[in-house]
């Protein structure tokens, strides 16, 4: 690399990620002048301009993007050396930063986090809640080690490892017509009275695909309301009428008296595929396997089986 060192590569990647020298310096725990000097030195060594400083936020030049893409590979391969040593010694330790979507976080994390920590006490794990688009971007920038989200994504350079399959269920107000039907089929779903998560949430897209509705769905709801919370949407059904759809884990947490408002589809049931996803350059393989094992050990056993229904795509 013409004399570039690993530290310079890390600085280049940080500036590309955050688009500001000040923030990149904070994330690298150095002063802004130190980082700027090393970036400038790298550009002089390579005899190219990596960042266009005349723009705010800073833009990475076309040739700079190629350099930084390779820098990410070099950094990941270097980190892989430590992982190889850890695997050979059998030590289960290290740091994991995991992203998770909002429609999973409040229902899935309480199921397995305690189990994971008890079985892997030397692993420092943290979680960040983001919508899918933000998670994919963070994975590609190596800001996350992995993410738990709904697949298939069909993204280049992203590996999907299915963990379990949630039923997609109906939650209807007692006065809604769907509540009175014994055997529900997908073709019974309409926009009438349908409450949805706001745009950007993959479960909203799954509901629209399942119902074969357009994004600009019209409804006869008593008010226009957008929310990123399934619990809030469900409570709006309770107070204002209508119906919504819930993934299986969200329905599992309902109070006993609310279960009568949950309706299942006839078989084969619509399913939501939940996966652990990570970059192809991911190097913490052993920790990733432990995380997947912990999740699968703590979700309802029937959710491990895909053959009971069909996966609803969201893209």
Number of separate strands: 10
Number of H/I helices: 10
Into which percentage range does the β-strand content fall? 15-25%
Helices and strands, in order, run as: HHHEEHEHEHEEHHEHEEHE
Rg, alpha carbons: 23 Å
The end-to-end distance, rounded to whole angstroms, is 40 Å
**Broad structural category:** alpha/beta
Instruction: Please describe the biggest sheet, giving its number of strands, its sense, and whether it closes into a barrel.
Output: 8 strands, mixed
- Helical content band: 40-55%
List unreliable stretches of 5+ residues: none
Tell me the overall shape.
elongated
> Whole-number average pLDDT?
87
Supply database-style keywords.
alpha/beta; single chain; 40% helix; 315 residues; 10 strands; 8-stranded mixed beta sheet; two-stranded antiparallel sheet; 10 helices; elongated
């Amino acid at each position: 690399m013409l004399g570039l060192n690993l530290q310079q590569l890390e600085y280049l990647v940080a500036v590309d990620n955050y688009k500001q020298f000040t923030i990149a310096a904070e994330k690298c725990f150095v002063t802004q002048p130190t980082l700027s000097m090393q970036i400038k030195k790298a550009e002089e060594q390579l005899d190219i301009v990596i960042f266009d400083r005349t723009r705010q936020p800073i833009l990475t030049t076309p040739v700079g993007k190629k350099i930084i893409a390779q820098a990410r590979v070099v950094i990941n391969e270097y980190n892989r050396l430590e992982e190889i040593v850890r695997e050979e010694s059998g030590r289960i330790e290290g740091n994991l930063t995991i992203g998770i979507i909002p429609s999973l976080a409040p229902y899935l994390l309480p199921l397995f986090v305690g189990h994971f920590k008890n079985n892997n006490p030397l692993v420092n794990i943290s979680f960040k809640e983001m919508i899918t688009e933000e998670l994919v971007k963070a994975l590609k920038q190596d800001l996350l080690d992995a993410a738990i989200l709904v697949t298939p994504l069909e993204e280049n350079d992203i590996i999907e490892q299915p963990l379990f399959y949630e039923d997609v269920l109906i939650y209807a107000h007692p006065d809604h017509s769907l509540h009175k039907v014994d055997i529900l089929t997908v073709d019974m779903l309409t926009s009438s009275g349908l409450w949805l998560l706001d745009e950007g949430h993959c479960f909203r897209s799954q509901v629209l695909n399942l119902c074969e509705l357009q994004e600009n769905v019209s409804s006869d709801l008593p008010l226009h309301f957008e929310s990123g919370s399934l619990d809030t949407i469900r409570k709006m059904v309770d107070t204002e009428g209508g119906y919504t759809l819930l993934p299986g884990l969200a329905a599992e947490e309902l109070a006993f008296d609310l279960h009568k408002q949950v309706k299942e589809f006839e078989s084969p049931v619509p399913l939501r595929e939940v996966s652990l996803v990570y970059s192809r350059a991911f190097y913490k393989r052993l920790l990733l396997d432990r995380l997947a094992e912990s999740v699968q050990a703590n979700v309802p056993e029937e959710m491990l089986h895909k053959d009971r229904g069909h996966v609803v795509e969201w893209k």
